[in-house]
Amino acid sequence: MTSFKRTLQTQRFDDYRYYHQSRINQTLHLISAVIFLVCYALLFKDPALSGLVGWLAMLTRQTGHFFFEPNGYDEVNGVSNEHKEAIKVGYNQKRKIVLLVVWGLAPASLILAPTLFGLFPPPAGRMDFVRHVGVLWLLVGIGGGLFRMIQLFAMRGVGIGLIWVTKVLTDPFHNIALYWRSPLALLRGEMIDPTIKGARWAEEETDGDAEPTPHLT
């Protein structure tokens, strides 16, 4: 396995064990992953609708993180929530809040400046406004990803930034493969994934004589 693949697998594993212990969160991620695939399909056909659908998926996703995922001391992994937030490569909770605030302010900016200083034609009706919001939300999502990638280029190196972007773009496919059983487990009354404590799939797929991969979420 190449260094790129090893690091990608490690980021995925740490994301899973640190931030996806709740079966409700896993189920919401499964739903959001399916919605994201619809967003991908619409991206080049109808960018405005893609932006609206994409943020529906994002809200579904973040609801799981903010309301259902345990945020105290992580007994399974033996680390504090503060430690996990400090080492997270992508958007930790503080960064997510900033991004969600920008997302929430986007419609307000179009109310104050309907053409957004010439970016859009004057809206002829309510649906034009909604579609402009969709395009703006798409730009916020792409801009947020590019902004964090450039930050990682500067702080951690180009490799880490590219691996993180690859992880984000492929998360919908990986989440479906990983969490498709979660709704059934939830129906059985299983609120926390019991397999996380013994999970070692990132290590199992790494060559035994390879150099250790830094655990970055």
Concise structural overview:
The protein is mostly helical.
Describe what you observe in this structure.
It is a single chain. By secondary structure, this protein is mainly α. 68% of the residues lie in helices and 0% in strands. It has helices at 3-19, 23-42, 47-67, 81-87, 93-112, 126-155, 158-179, 182-187, 201-204. The longest helix is centred in the middle third of the chain and has 30 residues, at 126-155.
Summarize the topology.
Elements: H1 3-19, H2 23-42, H3 47-67, H4 81-87, H5 93-112, H6 126-155, H7 158-179, H8 182-187, H9 201-204
User: What pattern of helices and strands is seen along the backbone?
Assistant: HHHHHHHHH
Uncertain parts: 206-217
How many angstroms does the end-to-end distance come to?
19 Å
Helix content: 55-70%
Distinctive features:
single chain, mainly alpha, 68% helix, disordered C terminus
